[in-house]
UniProtKB/TrEMBL annotation:
The gene is asd. Its EC number is 1.2.1.11. It comes from Paracoccus jeotgali. It catalyses: L-aspartate 4-semialdehyde + phosphate + NADP(+) = 4-phospho-L-aspartate + NADPH + H(+). Pathway: Amino-acid biosynthesis; L-lysine biosynthesis via DAP pathway; (S)-tetrahydrodipicolinate from L-aspartate: step 2/4; Amino-acid biosynthesis; L-threonine biosynthesis; L-threonine from L-aspartate: step 2/5; Amino-acid biosynthesis; L-methionine biosynthesis via de novo pathway; L-homoserine from L-aspartate: step 2/3. Homodimer. Catalyzes the NADPH-dependent formation of L-aspartate-semialdehyde (L-ASA) by the reductive dephosphorylation of L-aspartyl-4-phosphate. PANTHER family: ASPARTATE-SEMIALDEHYDE DEHYDROGENASE, DEHYDROGENASE, PUTATIVE-RELATED. InterPro entries: Asp-semialdehyde_DH_CS, Asp_ADH_gamma-type, NAD(P)-bd_dom_sf, Semialdehyde_DH_NAD-bd, Semialdhyde_DH_dimer_dom. The active site is at 135 (acyl-thioester intermediate), 285 (proton acceptor). GO terms for biological process: diaminopimelate biosynthetic process; isoleucine biosynthetic process; lysine biosynthetic process via diaminopimelate; methionine biosynthetic process; threonine biosynthetic process. Keywords: Amino-acid biosynthesis, Diaminopimelate biosynthesis, Lysine biosynthesis, Methionine biosynthesis, NADP, Oxidoreductase, Threonine biosynthesis. NCBIfam families: asd_gamma, PRK06598.1. This is Aspartate-semialdehyde dehydrogenase.
Amino acid sequence: MTQTPRVGLIGWRGMVGSVLMDRMTDSGDFDLIEPVFFSTSNAGGKAPRGDAPLADAYDLDTLKSCDAILTCQGGDYTKKVFADLRAQGWDGHWIDAASTLRMEKDALIVLDPVNRPQIDSALAAGNRNWIGGNCTVSCMMMGVGALFKAGLVEWMTTQTYQAASGGGAQHMRELLTQYGTLNAEVRDLLDDPKSAILEIDRKVLARQRAMLDSDESAQFGAVLGGSLIPWIDQDLGNGVSREEWKGMAETNKILGLGEDAIGVPGGEAIPIDGFCVRIGAMRCHSQALTFKLTRDVPLDEIEGMIASDNDWVKLVPNEKQATMEALTPVAVTGTLTIPVGRVRKLAMGPEYLGAFTVGDQLLWGAAEPLRRILRILIEG
Ligand SMILES: NC(=O)C1=CN([C@@H]2O[C@H](COP(=O)(O)OP(=O)(O)OC[C@H]3O[C@@H](n4cnc5c(N)ncnc54)[C@H](OP(=O)(O)O)[C@@H]3O)[C@@H](O)[C@H]2O)C=CC1
Ligand SMILES: N[C@@H](CC(=O)OP(=O)(O)O)C(=O)O
């Protein structure tokens, strides 16, 4: 790219975009670019930095004047402008948080601590489309990518515990509102230490059921406060949710395995499957992982590989106190740390390994891989 590339930023005031803006500011990225701020709703309004007014995010001419476009605006926006921009000959770098283009053959899923070699090959081959991965997949790969890189994974199954933020800002609000409503319903009984717990339980359940099919559960379409939802994203019609499908599809694409690999033909895809579940956490996705290893490797070697894989992964000793302190959404939220704990061989045999990991789905799950690919494109 040019010395000080012109970078169009779309979606900067949304939830993912706001986290991205903070990270770009903290990392000094704005010193390296000429930012152009766009809006889908307020063209001409005040931009968050500089004097230039907000540009119209649907104005293809202004978009085309950018060396790179970084969007966190969502898939509908991508569908509206990306194809037209390319059709008009724009060959700048398109960096996108949305899933729309992820599985396209001419797009790379970016997670450079895991797939920097694939990024470098794609860059050399003239790739221009860089897409952030699914949050659950990216956080998982930041934690246990070492095992995949070492060819140690025969298959993996995931059981996820995904935060409300994965649905968006309104979902986070709805979760908290539901919790508040439930608390208010039984506050008097809670204040009385002699009240019967089953009476509290009965009132909570009645209030939860009253929330169903009301505005109080409009975002999730089910009650999440004091409950869980074992389905995330679309129903693919074959018993699999789209979130579950992404686990295998995206992990293998990130690794350059399987038929969707970019450039060099990929090796055989690694089977990955499991269940994705929405729980009442705010913005950290957690996952219990089970691996069938390709061979029996001593536990201390596995722990060493995980711990030394990248600057953000942190091995948590498989002990109660350390787990409760470091392996929870409360501990991880707002940080780039990816703790991996509960690492142990399972009762099924020495090739079966269990682990648990947590990641902030707005940081490594969304904003950070995008910020880092922009930096790679700028600095080479
Ligand atoms: N939420 C997540 O966990 C993840 C999301 N993504 C992707 O990122 C996309 C954006 O997600 P997310 O950031 O959650 O979406 P948001 O709904 O928070 O923001 C999207 C856009 O909505 C517009 N908007 C309208 N009202 C408001 C408001 N009150 N405050 C802020 N923005 C407002 C803004 O556009 P404008 O300024 O132009 O009006 C904003 O850029 C998703 O569609 C998805 O494709 C990817 C990974 C994870
Ligand atoms: N589907 C994720 C959030 C998300 O936006 O995922 P994707 O970027 O793959 O669409 C969740 O609900 O937790």
